[in-house]
Each structure stands twice: as C-alpha cells, then as structure tokens.
Design goal:
- The strands form four sheets. Strands 5, 8, 9, 10, 11, 12, 13, 14, 15 and 16 form a ten-stranded antiparallel beta sheet that branches. The protein has a two-stranded antiparallel ribbon with strand order 1-2.
- The chain contains eight helices and 16 strands.
- A hairpin with a 6-residue loop joins strand 6 and strand 7.
- The chain is α+β, with helices and mostly antiparallel strands and 314 residues long.
- It binds zinc ion.
- Zinc ion binds next to loops.
Length: 314
C-alpha cells in the first residue's frame, strides 16, 4: 500500500517534470521566433531607377532616411512655373531641380507632380566613392549639418541612394544630361540688372503703338539711372545715343555667336571697340527711344536670331 503510493507520486513527479520542460521549451521557441520577426522587419527595397522615376517611392525613402526636413508631393497648378513655386517656399528653383532628378526641362505643366522639400537644398545622388567627408567637401557644407539631416550617414553609405544637402544647389555634373545642357546655357549670361520683368519675349501688344507685335527681348522695370552690367564678357559693337526705337543703346558681341542689346538707356559708360567683362557696368538705365516708362530692354541674339533671354537668366 505504502510502496504503491510512492510509485504513484514518483510517476506523477516525472510526468510533471516532463510537462514542465516541454512547455518551457515551447514558450522559448515562440518567444524567440517573435523576437526574430521583430528584429528582421524588412525595409522596403528600392532601385535607383525607381527612386528617380517614382515620386511616391522617393517620398517614402526620404521619410525614412532624413530628419528635420519634410518632403511633399506637389501638384503644379494652372499658370505656375518653377520660379513661382520656388518663390512660394522661399527658395530658388535649384532646390526643385535638385530634388527632382526625373526632370529634363525647366517647363512644368498643370497637374505635373514634383517632390518639394520644406527647406532649400538638394538631393545628392550617392556616388560609389562617397564618404561623409567627400560629400561635405563637394558642397562646402559642415559634416555635422549633413549628419543632423540624414539618418543614412550613420550607417554604410554604399547602401544609400540619396542624401539631402540643406541650403545647397545641385552639382551640375550629377544632373541628368538634358539638365546639364540647360545649366550650361544659363552659365553663359548673368542678368544685366535686378528688376521685375514687365514684358516677356514673344507675341505681345506694343505698349506704344498698341499694335500686335513680336517682342524681340524682355523688358525689366527699374528706376531711372540704375546700373546696367554686361551679361557676359565681349566687345562693344554699338554705343550710341540714337539707335532708333531703342533710344540710347549698347550692343555687345560675345564672340561665341551671341550678341546682347541694352536699350532705353540714359547714359553710356563704354565706347565702341572696348572689351568688357561679365558684370562690368556699361550704362545707366532710362526711358529713351520708344518707351512708356523707365525700363531696360534686353535682347539676346544667337547667330543673328532673337532668342528668349529667360532661357539664360535664373
Ligand atoms: Zn522691350
């Protein structure tokens, strides 16, 4: 009877011990599995092409990789252009171009989508040789600024596609080929002065005659007597106080197929045959000739044909 009880209890304890170990092992296995799956949450995998051509993918990528900067997908509205959009956000068009490597032209259409950051800067496409030091040197920006803006810079850069560089323009040699060509054109000339463009190139009603005509250049409204600078270096071919409807005007031959005209001036500071440098002061603005108010008329001719000066000015 007593022996029987011992055997029963012994069996009971053996069973209990076995059950304990089995349950324990199971619990461990489950915990480990859930821990593993928690650690190996897979990040979305992107290809470079996808990040360039798909705004939503780029937006998600940047959401994970950057800090202190917000990106939005912006839909271009009617009559908007890169300049009006950039102005709305308080930065230059370079920011929009730099954050939109899919763009091949400056023209944007209604409904077109752009990736827009809340602060000025550019996306740097990570190059095979890049380190945080080389990126900092390429843009002239502190490494700490890059680190504060990009989570990616704490890890292996070779795994990354884009780094946001605050306050900087895109590097021209890293833009796509079409954009590189556009930038090259714009490096030819600087604006002859800072002012509001009142009349664009192309079809318009003439402000004096009232007739429909083609405008061969642009009009920039400025105060009488403003300094006018050469848009690029060249040789003065005309510097006269009577050039027909231009009134007082200066023409400069840039000796690369381009000629620029500056009209409705009040005072000329250069003479024919003189070599001038880019930005050198050549005249003071006025309202001479066929003009309705103080402004500078600015024409760019390429191989004798008028071209839109805005193609060359930022
Ligand atoms: Zn004009």
């Amino acid at each position: 009877m007593f022996r029987n009880l011992i055997i029963r209890w012994t069996v009971f304890f053996i069973v209990l011990t076995v059950v304990y170990f089995v349950v324990n092992a199971k619990v461990h296995a489950v915990a480990e599995a859930s821990l593993k799956s928690a650690i190996t949450v897979t990040l979305p995998v992107y290809t470079k092409d996808e990040l360039i051509n798909n705004l939503e993918s780029r937006l998600k990528y940047l959401y994970l990789k950057t800090k202190g900067v917000k990106f939005y997908v912006y839909k271009v509205k009617r009559r908007e252009n890169l300049w009006t959009i950039a102005k709305k956000y308080g930065y230059s068009v370079h920011t929009i171009i730099g954050c939109n490597p899919q763009m091949k032209t400056y023209n944007v259409n209604e409904g077109q989508k752009l990736l827009i950051p809340n602060v000025g800067g550019t996306l740097h496409p990570v190059q095979p040789e890049d380190t945080i030091k080389t990126i900092s040197e390429k843009y002239g920006v502190e490494e700490s600024v890059l680190k504060n803006t990009n989570f990616a810079l704490n890890g292996d850069l070779r795994q990354e596609f884009f780094v946001f560089v605050p306050g900087k323009r895109p590097l021209v040699n890293l833009l796509n080929e079409k954009m590189q060509q556009k930038y090259a054109l714009r490096e030819l000339f600087v604006s002859p002065l800072a002012g509001r463009i009142t009349s664009a190139f192309g079809k318009r009603r003439h402000p004096v005659t009232g007739k429909a005509s083609r405008h061969g250049g642009i009009d920039i409204a400025v105060k009488e007597g403003s300094w006018v600078g050469a848009a690029a270096s060249g040789v003065v071919t005309v510097a006269s106080y009577d050039v027909g409807h231009y009134g007082v005007a200066v023409f400069i031959d840039h000796q690369n197929g381009y000629i620029t005209h500056y009209g409705h001036l009040s005072k000329i500071l250069v003479r024919v045959g003189q070599r001038v440098k880019q930005g050198q002061l050549i005249a003071r603005s006025g309202s001479t000739g066929r003009s309705t108010g103080p402004h500078l008329h600015f024409t760019v001719k390429r191989n004798g044909v008028n071209v839109d000066p805005l193609q060359f000015l930022w």
